[in-house]
Structure formats: structure tokens, C-alpha cells
Amino acid sequence: MKVFKNNIKIMLTGLALTIAMSSCQEEANDYAPQQPAIDGYVFSNEVAPESLVAHWGFENNVKEEKSGAEGTATNTSFAVGIKGQAYKGSSTGFVAYETTPGNNLKDLKSFTTTLWIKTDKHDGGAQAVFMLPRTSDFWGNMFVMIEGNNTTEDKMLIKIGYGGQWAELTGDLRVTGIYGKWAHLAFSYNAGTSKFAMYVNGSALTLPAGITDRKNGSNPLGDLTLPDASKFVIGAFQQQLGAPWGTADGWMLPYTGILDELRIYNKALSAKEVGAIYKLETKGR
């Protein structure tokens, strides 16, 4: 009986210690420092979550996170990203999606696309970072391409296409000082104002009216249309997917750089929202 009582006493003492330790841990968690908010947000996923229609985090996979669509990767790999892991392209690499990924991606009227790139200079043609294809048009529905640069100038020529519209950052509009380092790009179109905007590392670019003010003849453009949207490709042009587009022209090159945190929203984000995404993802949040 004495041994039994001693065992009970030991068990009760152990239970009391466990409860005390648990209580201390809870108190410690209560007093643990919280991540400071930036522009009202703690994590980048908190920015306009109801408007996010497609997102690729590239955490050792190429799954589109909103729809769960799986892509087929060819000659690609992963690298250290701005936030976790990132997509790494190659001269023959890309990821193909047999269906249009995301939620209602092909129904965009307004949009914002944000992404991180780390890109070295390349010679020759243009590299496509991604493309939303269009079966009835050579240029697809939406894309970002980086033109070759065989000069000593540290200026990147970026071209963006969306719904038959073009934004070409040529000449003095070329983006300076982003080769070989992480750079955050964001571009948007607001159907309500018919205006295009672009941001680099969280700051809006000053662009001429010929790029910002979108027209349908003499009238404001209004809602975008993305007709005949089919499939999706990361790191290449739609022509690299083969039929029905045929073969790629010689100047159409896969993207050889690193890509991370590709997001597409169904509205034009504010400058504050774009800035918050940039600042938070810079901190890995």
C-alpha cells in the first residue's frame, strides 16, 4: 500500500509539473513579440486575398495554389527564392499547364500581376517569363517578356502584353540596375479608369500617357477581354507548347532566370497594396 501511495504521489507531482510548464509556455507565447505590421499587413497573403485569382509560390513544386492545378515541368529546377524556394528556368526549360489555372483567370476585366525576378543579361531574342495563351492570336492574352541586351548598359527592356494591349519599356523607360539581383515587378490595369500602371521594387514608374491611358479608338478601353484563353505556360511563349500554335520562332527564348511569388489579382491594386507586398516579401513574409 505504501508503494502504491508513493506512485500516486509521484504521478500527481509529475502532472502538476506538466500543467505548470504548459502554463508557462502559454504565458511565454502570450508575451512573444509579434511581427510588426507594414502598411497595415503582417503577411503578403493578407493583401487583397479576396481578389487573388492565381498564385505560384514555387515551394519545390509548380502547383498553382488557388486552383491546385499541376504543371508539367521540362528542364527546370528550384533555387533559393526571395521567400522560400523559387522557380529556376533554363535555355530549354518551361512549365506547361493543360488547363487555365487559377480562379476565373480568363475572366479578368481589371488585373494586377506581381512577381519577383532575378535575371542576368542574355543575348539574342526575347525571353518570356510567363504567358496566358490565346488560341486565336499570335501574341496570346497576357505575357511578360525580357528583350536581349548585348550592350554594356545596365538597362532592362521589358515588354508586357494584356488583352491586345502593349506596354513597352523601351529607350529611356528601360529599367536600370536590376540585372543579376532580385527585383519586384508589378503591373496593373484598371477597367474603371482605363489606365495601366507599373511598379518596380514597390515604386510606381512615371510613364507617358501613350502607355498609361488605354483606348478603344478614341474612347476609353474599359473592361479587358481575354478571348480563347487556353492553357498557361511559365518560362516560355505559348508557341513552345506546340499545337495549335506551331513551332516557336528563333527569337522566342525560354526564361533562364529565377522567378518567385507570381500573383495575379482581379483588380488594380493600389500603390499602397503593391508597396506592402514588396516590403513584406522582402522580409520573407
From TrEMBL:
SUPFAM superfamilies assigned: Concanavalin A-like lectins/glucanases
Coiled coil (UniProt feature): none
Biological processes annotated in GO: carbohydrate metabolic process
PROSITE patterns in alphabetical order: PROKAR_LIPOPROTEIN
Family annotation (Gene3D superfamilies): 2.60.120.200
Entry GO MF terms: hydrolase activity, hydrolyzing O-glycosyl compounds
InterPro entries for the chain: ConA-like_dom_sf
Protein's name in the database: LamG domain-containing protein
Species the sequence originates in: Pedobacter psychroterrae
